[in-house]
Amino acid sequence: LGWIFNVPALIRRGFKRRQKGKQQQLLQSGLGAIVLKDHAHVLSAFKALAKMQFLPRQSALLAAQAAGQLDQAPLAQTMQDQAKSVHEPETALLLDLYQIDQDIAQEAFLAAETRLLKHHVQNTTNPLILRRAWQLYLKQQHYFKAASALSTLLHDHKDLKLAHQDVCFTFKQALCSKTIDTLSRLQECYQMVPKAYQQEVAILVPYYEKLCFFNENTKALNLLQKHLNKHFDNTLFVLYTRIPSPKPSKQLEQAQKWLGTQRLHAQSLVAIGQLCLENDFKTQAKEYFQQSLSIKASAQAYIGLASCDGDIKEQLKHYQQAASLVHS
Asked: For residue 95, what pLDDT is reported?
């Protein structure tokens, strides 16, 4: 009997849950339409929310504003009257974005829109809101927040097509940002990068450099070696030669192994020449610098040759050649 008497209460709870889900769906839909300035969509979403008594004052005002944009004056007046009849504190969070005056400075517009988005971006999968949040955070140079929004966007909408260079730029800037102030924060940021982008050179370089900043040289070298064994890249090779190693002779030995199997650029030959100098192998270093110059003249290669040559006149000649390249 107790269960039977509780049926109406159970039905009411079930209805409330469904209604709450519908409200959240309409809110996300309406917010996305605000970002796109889709007035018809804004009107239908917030008119429905006002009827459901969800943020009744703000919803009615937004519906009125949208109706005005669509030249539906009678409906706009009706919604404004409905808003006036509701007594609740005015937060203006939703109105900040939609009623923004075009004469207000761009910084104020971005600040208003960011205030609006930050209340919803944490718990939403709406691609319109996430994409707008990503763009806004980039403009304001909040790179870690931009990377977080982008990561969620790419995770929840795998079929979404975004410019490859924009995605790489976002995660690269996040990894380089000052907010990455601990090793755990660095790992958190790198884990936000989708697997399809984790092996991109533009992302790996700042990640490995940041590892070295946190005195994780050995880890950076090991990861670089694994990557270069699978996918050789001249930029990463140069980085590998420049990271201080506790075993410099083994580092040089590994670099020379790649030299025998890969076609190195002029910059890579300079890098391995400098590594030879650090290990006091001047004869080998000189050969690498000369090979580099046979591909492309560079100031670094001439400076390297000067370090290898014991003749003062020859050293001066190499420095002059390097200077001519720098000032040309």
From this structure: 43
